[in-house]
Every structure is written in structure tokens, then in C-alpha cells.
Write a structure and sequence with these properties.
Elements lengths: L13 H32 L3 E6 L2 E6 H30 L2 H24 L5 H29 L5 H27 L5 H18 L16 H13 L1 H17 L5 H8 L3 H8 L2 H14 L7 H21 L3 H28 L3 H15 L1 H17 L1 H22 L1 H5 L2 H6 L11
Antiparallel strand pairs: 1-2
Helix pairs in contact: 1-2, 1-4, 1-5, 1-6, 2-4, 2-14, 2-15, 3-4, 3-6, 4-14, 5-10, 5-11, 5-13, 7-14, 8-12, 8-13, 8-15, 8-16, 9-10, 11-13, 12-13, 12-16, 15-16
């Protein structure tokens, strides 16, 4: 094995490899499905418009932009309803079984989408309903999956494990939309939903190979008291709160992915195939940045790097909003992916290493309320603004605001600026490996 790839130390752990493969397959299926849903809604609403009374004036709004924005709302409601419950499940039950069950639910949603689409019985309302159900599966799965990572590798290899998981997820995010775009140009969109169902089933099978079971916190039970304990812990850690707030507001202001059908179809004029290619830009940028991170044993001055990566995310989004060149749009959209994965790895490492395992599921669920609702509410915000002033201005203004917000967080939370994980790890005792290699 080449020396640089031997630094991917997390792959030496057997259980982590099963999780890694399962996440790659599951993410590919999810990305294909979300890509198809976005284009499906865009096509069903294309060319329609409606009038909305606003401040005493009648404002003409595009149905496709508003409809795409509503997809964000359908994905955020399950986060609000079930997000904290997912954390309780992760801390109370076998995390491996929770992950398997949620992938089976996601597969069922994809099967229903497949049948209804191929039968010609699908409509926008049903797509919204099934999207919400699929989002609920993701929400209930996420705390268990993130909490599981720290159980499968040694603490000193956790940052590498998070980098590798995000790396493989970005690979799947590239493959999923690109493949879906090519297939949609030739076949019924129901085929993409069917492939997604198969991917979720394969991912569930992979997770059954994980041997780690862990000790169930039966004494904690499921109650408001145990939930409140996790909430108090999370908000009591100032560095967690700072990264959580910045993540939420940056994605709330600068999320632009749901607007891609409009950017590709109307601003750049590249159609469904071009839309599929443009959708790969963000994960390509994330893939390249994630590869660099995964090849580094240690990353110093992580706090400063975290802030710079979020600022880059915002500024690149602003340029993406005003670009009329496909090449420039692809490059800057790739930079948003790079900034996002760098910040995700660092804030994920901070949260995992500062939280006891018995509270980790609840901590993740509290954070999930912010880092999942931020992007989805951001898509709703972008859809509403774009339906009034157009997608370019909506994307540009949001990206610029996110960059300015980063400056405020850097000033308001000095603990983030000073954070250096390499130094912190040297002061922490090494934890034993529990997952098997």
C-alpha cells in the first residue's frame, strides 16, 4: 500500500469498514433520490406561476422556485418533530439496529415512489409527503450513525474516521447525481427511485456485518429528564454552541442546492444533463478537500481553519449566484463543497471528543436540529426570495451574508479561534479500541 494511503488508519478497523461501505451505498441512493425529486418537482411545476399579496401589492411568483423551496420545508419538519427522539434512541437502544431499521424505512419510501411514478399516479403533493417520510428516516438514523463512529476506532483516529466517512459520502454524492442525470435523460424517472431502494437495502445488509454492540444505557430510559440532560450538556459547552450556531446560520443564508434546476435550466441553459453535471461540482470540491484531510494524521490550528472554510463557503456561494458561465459556476460551487467538508470534519471532531459516549446520541440530536434545519430552511428561504427577485440575487445575497456572519462569530467566540485539536489530543488520555480490527 502506498505510504500516503496507509495514513487512512481508520480503514484498519473491520467494523468501521462495514460502516464506511454502508454509508457510501446509502448516500449514493439518497443523493440519486433527492436529485430525481428536485427535477421531478421542477418539471411538474415548470411554467406555472401564482400571485401572492405582499405588503399591499400583488407579487407574481414562479411556482417552480416556490415549489422547490417547499421541498426544504418538507425535509425540515421531520427534523423538528423527531430530531431529539433520534438522540434518545441512539443512547437507549442498539445503534446498529436503529441504523438498519431506518434504512429499511428509506427503502420502503423509495419503492412507493417507484411504483407511483411508473404507474403515472404521482403528483407534487405525494412527492412532498414521501419526501417528509424519507427525511424522518434520515433524522432518526443520524444520531445513531454519528455516535457509532467513536465506538469503532480509537479516539486518536476519530478525526481520520470522520474525514473518511465524509470523503466516501462525497464520492457517492458525485456518482449519484451524475448517474441519475444520465438515466433521466433516457428512461422514466421511476427507475432512479428503484435504484435508490436497492441501494438502501444493500446498505442495511452491510451494517449487519458490524460486530460492535455496545452497552445499552437501560438505566437512563426514555424521558424528558434524560433528554434535558443532553440539552443542558450541549448548550453548556461554549465551543460546541459557537460551531453549532455558525453552521446553522451559514447554511440558512447560503444554501443553494435546491435552486440548481433553475440555475442549470434557466440561467445557464444546460438542461437535465448539465444539471446532473453541475450537481457534481459541490461533492467534487468536497472530495478533493476530504482526500487531503484524510491523508493528514493531524491538522493543526483547526479553529482558524474552520472559520476560514465557512467564509470561503459563503463567498463562493455569492459568486455562484451571479455567474453566467458554466465553468465558473462549476468551480465556485466546488469551492462551497470544499469549505463545507473542512468545517464539517473539524466541528464533528470537536463535538465527539468533548462529549461522553453515554450522552453522544443526545448531543448529536441537539446539533442536528441546527445543522439539518439550517440547509433545509435555507432552501425554503432561497425559494421564497428567488420566486420574487430571481435565483441569482437570492443566492448572491445569502452567500455574502454568510461570509459576514463568520466575521461576527470569530469575534464573539474566541475559543473557536484558539482551538488546536492536535495540542488538545496530547493532553487527553488515549481510549482503548472497542470495535475490533
Amino acid at each position: 500500500m502506498p505510504r500516503q494511503f496507509s495514513r487512512m488508519v481508520a480503514l484498519r478497523y473491520r467494523d468501521f469498514r462495514f460502516l464506511w461501505f454502508g454509508e457510501m451505498v446509502s448516500t449514493a441512493g439518497m443523493q440519486m433520490q433527492q436529485f430525481a425529486i428536485n427535477w421531478h418537482v421542477f418539471e411538474l411545476l415548470r411554467g406555472q406561476s401564482f400571485t401572492l399579496p405582499l405588503f399591499g401589492n400583488a407579487v407574481e411568483m414562479g411556482s417552480e422556485a416556490f415549489g422547490l423551496g417547499l421541498l426544504g420545508l418538507t425535509r425540515v419538519i421531520p427534523v423538528l418533530l423527531f430530531g431529539l427522539a433520534g438522540g434518545l434512541l441512539a443512547d437507549r437502544f442498539d445503534r446498529r439496529r436503529v441504523m438498519i431499521a431506518m434504512r429499511l424505512l428509506a427503502a420502503l419510501v423509495a419503492v412507493v415512489l417507484t411504483v407511483l411514478t411508473l404507474a403515472g399516479q404521482i403528483n407534487v403533493g405525494l412527492i412532498y409527503l414521501l419526501t417528509a417520510l424519507g427525511a424522518a428516516a434520515i433524522v432518526l438514523d443520524f444520531p445513531a450513525r454519528q455516535s457509532m463512529e467513536a465506538n469503532l476506532v480509537q479516539a486518536r483516529h476519530l478525526s481520520n474516521a470522520i474525514s473518511l466517512n465524509m470523503l466516501v459520502m462525497k464520492i457517492a454524492t458525485i456518482i449519484g447525481p451524475a448517474l441519475a442525470g444520465l438515466l433521466m435523460a433516457q428512461f422514466n424517472i421511476g427507475l432512479i427511485y428503484g435504484i435508490s431502494a436497492s441501494a438502501f437495502l444493500l446498505a442495511a445488509a452491510a451494517i449487519t456485518g458490524i460486530r460492535y454492540r455496545g452497552a445499552l444505557a437501560k438505566s437512563a430510559g426514555i424521558s424528558w429528564r434524560t433528554l434535558a440532560l443532553g440539552i443542558r450538556f450541549t448548550f453548556g459547552k461554549r465551543i460546541i454552541v459557537g460551531t453549532m450556531l455558525l453552521d446553522f446560520f451559514a447554511t440558512l443564508l447560503a444554501s443553494a442546492r435546491t435552486m440548481l434546476p433553475i440555475v442549470a435550466g434557466e440561467v445557464l441553459g444546460v438542461g437535465a444533463v448539465g444539471y446532473g453535471l453541475l450537481a457534481t461540482a459541490q461533492p467534487v470540491g468536497a472530495l478533493l478537500a476530504g482526500l487531503v484531510l484524510s491523508l493528514r494524521a493531524e491538522l493543526k490550528r483547526q479553529g482558524v481553519i474552520f472559520l476560514l472554510s465557512v467564509a470561503m463557503y459563503g463567498l463562493a456561494t455569492a459568486v455562484f449566484g451571479i455567474s453566467t458561465s458554466f465553468i465558473l459556476s462549476y468551480i465556485v460551487f466546488a469551492l462551497t463543497g470544499a469549505g463545507d467538508i473542512i468545517s464539517s470534519v473539524i466541528r464533528g471532531t470537536i463535538r465527539q471528543l468533548t462529549t461522553p459516549d453515554k450522552l453522544r446520541g443526545r448531543m448529536v440530536s441537539v446539533n442536528m436540529l441546527f445543522f439539518m434545519t439550517g440547509p433545509q430552511l435555507g432552501e425554503l428561504r432561497a425559494g421564497l426570495v428567488a420566486s420574487i427577485v430571481g435565483a441569482p440575487l437570492a443566492i448572491f445575497s445569502g452567500g455574502l451574508a454568510a461570509a459576514l456572519l463568520t466575521l461576527w462569530v470569530a469575534w464573539r467566540f474566541p475559543s473557536i479561534r484558539r482551538y488546536n485539536n492536535a495540542a488538545d489530543l496530547k493532553r487527553k488520555p488515549r481510549q482503548g479500541h472497542r470495535g475490533g480490527s
